[in-house]
Amino acid sequence: MSYPAGLKWPYPIKYKEETEVTTDVLILGGGIAGCWAAISAARNGGKVAIVEKGATLGSGAGVGCDHWQWAVTDTPGVKITAEEFTQALVDNHGGYNNGISRYIQAREGYETLLELEKMGGKVRDTEDTFEGAEFRDEETKLLFAYDYENKLMIRVWGQTFKEALYKELNRLGVKLYDRVMATSLLTKDGKQGSKVIGATGVNMRTGEFYVFKSKATILCGARPQRMWAYNTELAGASDLRTPSSMGGCYPMAWKAGAEFTMMEKTIERGTLIHSSAPHGSGSPSNTWYAMTMVDATGKEIPWVDRDGKIIKTVSERYRPAPGQKFFIMGGGSSSLPHPGLYEYKGPRLHNVDALMEREEVTLPLYADLPGMPEHERHAIFGLMVGQESKTKQTYVNYTRAGFDPNKDQLMSYQQLLGGGGYGTASTGAKVVVGLPYIRNFSSGVSGGPVVDWDMKTTLEGLWAAGDGIYGGNDHSHAATTGRYAGRKAAAYTKKAGDDAIARKQVDEEKSRVYGPLKRKDGAYWKELLAGINKIMQAHCGNIKRDTRMKMGRTYLDDMQQAADDMLYAVNPHDLGNALSILDVLTSAKMIVHASMARRASSAILHFKRGEYPEVDPPEWNKFVTIKLDGDNVKVGELPITYGAPYVENYEKYSKV
């Protein structure tokens, strides 16, 4: 691929230029976690800089947000404790969750939201649009979602959040390095496993090289993506995260010697289009909970409670079953296998697949907005669909086209995509010929760097927060953990000394970064990504076997050699894409290593081993960890109770 004839690159080319930046706290990633980490660090007296591959004002999955999750302590109407709820979240994932970060989220979520409100984020129904609604607290004007009895989720105007955070960053004097892609971590004496003292980066418009020197560094990038499939023509519909989010912080931390866990957890998909299509078009989970659904003939699909009892009213869909204290999540279809505990299962749509087998339902399904109570209808389509990240485009485009939620139904992609609430392929193979070898790096709770009660990784000088840690997931989790990590990192800088950058390490990274520019042709980044996808589809798919994974590991190593010899780029943007695909390649290797290390199948981790078919045997009820030691991968473990006891440890470590 060459640059189109007659067109000039619109930015000055600065491949030979190098800029050095010195700061106290360096934030890699300008999404929700990154913004909160920077604000918190700056308020605690640190000189702070953010390095963001895109533009901080609009970066990350948190550009929009329709509900603020799991705010427990001090939230009006909540009657359970942060400890009780955290333990429920951990237990519901069979222990494979981050109890540390979830407790921080439950404990500090509401005060973080109030802090955001002071910055200018809108969190209350100040116009009284929903006055009298059963999900509205009339005294505080807060709007709640999901469980109306326990009020663990707050409906918010999330499209206002990033602008409020951006203004606060500028007010505090945080330095923003937008369009700069971080490429590596710098370590003391240039040695793997030693103290992290900064990072390198390259400007994706000018090609200028950056050397960032810091006393503390916080990883706030998103999780890896695109290992199994990536359709560039459907990039905007691929998932809730931005197409440019390739998980670059994972390879950086991996190469520096940080420890990771849960990297073997991946989710089977039945289509190239993942979360955004259902989120934006009527799938009765998450943003659309608890929508009335009808089939193509107008027949209503019943809702059932935890116990499978048919729910007769819309109001009951938002309440626990008799004898149930609270539920964690609901919606989707009861045909979707859920490994979580029965105790916390919420109201959900009836088993649609079973109804289809009995020929009682005719596809497609439709979200029956006119059939919902007025307040519920406008809370879902007028508020939540309009405020969640990419789903706002559904609201804007459909409204402009004349869609009227008071009169019109909206076709849902549920079942048509090949499965339940989020389009997963768990049951949909009977409905659509899916592609069972296409997987995703764990929608929902995912793997990532191990962190402690300081949100510090296993490397000195390196913290992590948000989507880029093990157990990462939602918007308020990113906000609270970023805020927590920022204050901890800032406190660390007050006693940390200055360490000199190892010039050899910088020069070696510079040579690696600019390598693709030295070639005029060869392998373009899309070709490399297609090769990675094919290897992962064939050798690290649904059922994993040692022989296949060993072959896959060999092929990925061969792919690395081919990339080193053949990968080319023609401009700074191309270069950024090429480097991102090299990150995808490294992440793919990490997943294969972790998958080989776990020698047992696990329902919770969506993990099947051909040689080890026993599901969740007691001796494997533990976190498997991996880290790079030289050129070798070291396998370790952590107890499934890692981080407990939560109250005692929070009280001990949370203050600065």
Describe this structure in words.
This protein is α+β, with helices and mostly antiparallel strands. The protein folds into three domains: 296 residues, 3-Layer(bba) Sandwich (FAD/NAD(P)-binding domain); 159 residues, no CATH class; 121 residues, Fumarate reductase/succinate dehydrogenase flavoprotein-like, C-terminal domain (Methane Monooxygenase Hydroxylase, Chain G, domain 1). Helices cover 30% and strands 16% of the residues. It is built from 15 helices and 26 strands. The strands form seven sheets. Strands 1, 2, 7, 8, 9, 10 and 22 form a seven-stranded mixed β-sheet that branches. Helix 12 packs antiparallel against helix 13 and helix 12 packs parallel to helix 14. The longest helix is centred in the C-terminal third of the chain and has 26 residues. The protein is globular. The termini are far apart. About 5% of the residues have low confidence.
